[in-house]
Structures are given as C-alpha cells and as structure tokens.
C-alpha cells in the first residue's frame, strides 16, 4: 500500500513542477466551476428552457442527484480516504482546501455524470462537456486536492451515473412533457 502512495505522490509532485500563473488561472477557473456542480446545474437550467433540450436538462439534474447520493453521501463516507494535502500539509494547494474525504472526486464524478447525460442526447454538446469534465478532473490533481485514482474513479462512477440518469430521464420524460404541455394549455 505504501508503494502506491509513493507513486501517487510522485505524480502529484510532477504536476507541482508545471505550475505557472496562466495554468493556475485556467485550471483554477475549471476547479471553481466544478464546485458543487455549478456549471452543470446552470447548464441544466438553460436546457430545461427549450423543448428540444429539456430531456437532456432533466437527465443532468438526475445525474447530479445520483452523484450527491451515491458518491458524496455513500462512497466517500465508506472509504474515508484523506486528501493528499492532509498527508503533505506543507504543499500550497492555491485553491481552498475542502474538509470532506478524497475518494472519489466529487468535482470529477458530477462533471462526468453530467457530461455523460448530455452526451446521451447530443454528441457535439456532450463532447464539449466531456472536455470540460476532463479539465475539471485534471485540475483536482493539479492543485493537490485529490489523488490520481480519486479522479479516475470519480470519472468512471460519473459515467455510470450519467448513463443511469439518461435511462431514468427516458422513462420520466413522457410524464414530465405531459405536465409541461398541460400547464401551457390551461
């Protein structure tokens, strides 16, 4: 187990060597918009406004709900992995230090869940969402907030949750659409 942590810290230390003001600003932006799924919640609200994208918006909301329950409230509390900066407190993380557990990355999980939900409905928008999700996940390693496997597993869990959110939205959408249609007629 100690050897794996040596590898993790070697990766994180290598990332510390590529820091620059430009990368700090760009990746700081991505880490910020990934906080609490801000970018994905805003995207969902925008998608809900159009009939063409409403199902995708519903799917994103469901994916964020699934991430909150499965990842944040369940897995993190079962695993209880400390964050890298808890073990190496001398490292300047640049961004604020969360107090929650490290595994899996919530930023990454919610981002990949939402990106997958979007991709299932629109591949072009989904590809852009995946790029943003990957940058959000990478930023968490770059800033020494998560171990590499926190991000990798967060992405994998997020993809699975996004698929389940898509399937749920497919089942719920006719009911939801009827409600929207009925309320517009009255």
Polypeptide structure, described:
- The chain has 186 residues and is an all-alpha fold.
- The chain has one domain: Up-down Bundle (Vanadium-containing Chloroperoxidase, domain 1).
- The chain contains eight helices and no strands.
- The longest helix has 38 residues.
- It is globular.
- It starts with a helix and ends with a helix.
Low-confidence spans: 180-186
Helix content: over 70%
Using the 3D structure, state the CATH architecture.
Up-down Bundle
At the fourth level of CATH, the homologous superfamily is Phosphatidic acid phosphatase type 2/haloperoxidase
Instruction: Indicate the CATH class.
Output: Mainly Alpha
How far the N terminus sits from the C terminus, by CA atoms, comes to 63 Å
- β-strand amount: under 5%
- Give Rg in angstroms: 18 Å
Give the total of beta strands: 0
Mean pLDDT: 91
* Shape verdict: globular
SSE run: HHHHHHHH
Question: Main beta sheet, described?
Answer: none
The oligomerization state is: single chain
Number of helices: 8
Total domains:
1
Class based on secondary structure composition and strand pairing: mainly alpha
CATH fold label: Vanadium-containing Chloroperoxidase, domain 1
